[in-house]
# Entry
Amino acid sequence: MKVIGTESSQILASRIADAVRAEIVGVKFSKFPDGELYIRTGSISDEMVVVGSIVDPDSFVQLLLLIDTCEGSEIQLVLPYMGYARQDKKFHDGEPVSARAVARAVSQNVNRCITVNIHDPSVLLNFSAPAKNVSVAGTIGDYIAAMALRDPLVLAPDDGAARFAQAVAEKGGWDCDHLDKTRISGEEVSIAPQKLSAENRSVVIVDDIISTGGTIATAASMLMHQGAREVFAACVHGVLSGGAFARLKAAGIREVACSDTIERGCSRYSAAGTIAGVIQDGKKTAGRR
Ligand code: R5P
# Structure
């Protein structure tokens, strides 16, 4: 087995290769004069793990090109961050189901797909190959444990992230809750933990994605107003679009951390171990057949 990654998933691909004790294949990435992408890979093997987060149009095309280069091999596709997954239904007439379009495009010529904390697991039904979603909640729990905070309170920013926050909190047996929005007047909303108080607590807000940072920045300001001692933010996918990091820091958040599903300066923990576990399980199952 060998591992190969798109340009924006090089570090994660190498970590996965180390974890499954496989060789990483070198790739030359460049562009033709008209802007079309070109890739040339080193020698591939019969069994390939192709790793690529879809973070922009180029990373999507590179992934398709890598999959094509591996044609004829048994391919396990790892989509650490699947861009377009949030448009998982037609919200208005005339819209595509973008998650379905992307899932179909990348999974047609692969044998198996692995996603990480995909926004909605129902998206997996759109893959043409068997697909498995893994969670790095435990890894985020380990990161929080290493921070050695006194009696932290783990908070989900909304009901939708409550189960994820619970899985993170279980790692350390910490208190856990989710934030609720209450409308006070036409213009005023209050955001507070549903059951617990944030007063004098070290709060860690956890979510699957930080995109603009708006959700967590607003929540952090409210929590500090309610007397939280300090607020941290930890997510799986640090999309961090348009000044999100500075926005979060300006809101008073002590530390913002994400995984390496999208490689960022604040990637503090890796999804490699979790992904490698699934790849190795797949190998064992295949070996037993
Ligand atoms: C929403 O359902 C997601 O779980 C995140 O809460 C959302 O994508 C965060 O977006 P933003 O950082 O732009 O507030």
Notes: Residues 2-135+271-288 form a domain with the Rossmann fold fold (CATH 3.40.50.2020).
